[in-house]
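Input chain follows. Return structure tokens only.
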Amino acid sequence: MKLVASKTSPYARKIRIILAEKKLAFEFAGENVWDPATRIGDYNPLGKVPALVTDEGETLFDSPVIAEYLDGLGGTRLLPAGGIERARVKRQEALGDGIADAGIAVFLERKREAARQDGAWIERQLGKVRSGMAAIEKELGDKPYLGGESPSLGDIACGCALFWAEFRMPELGWRAKHPTLDAWARRLEARPSFSSTRPQDA
């Protein structure tokens, strides 16, 4: 398999962690979608990472699609087989991806010259990030992971979103504001799949 991705994308990190958790071999192909010479369009007509080329040569894109495919390849299951349990984990994945969506929107808006930035729109997106973090904390409760005794796809997606926010927007200071999330995050960071995929500008 070949994963076309960047090392800063929270969505790509989600897939890298799944591959590591399931001990699946793959080739990493770094791609900067903002580079005019990017070839991401060869893999995803929407111009987004990650994209996965399967061993059979078929290309999959959008991280929830890739995550679902990988979960069916054996190893530790990160998604329940069906029913409300599966829907609950998919909801958690959507929550993590949604936090990342809002955070990235803020990050990109702040790259515009100051006079053209929409402060109200930035605050609206930051509100989504904050309420999303509160929702993770509420759902976590006193469990070690969202998935219970072991991490699920929901933990991976939410963890990637929060770690991306810490990487790109450290001023949010979410660990100090949410001690429960900090303890949960430390449990995730202790796993090799997380420690080996920290975001980096590369």
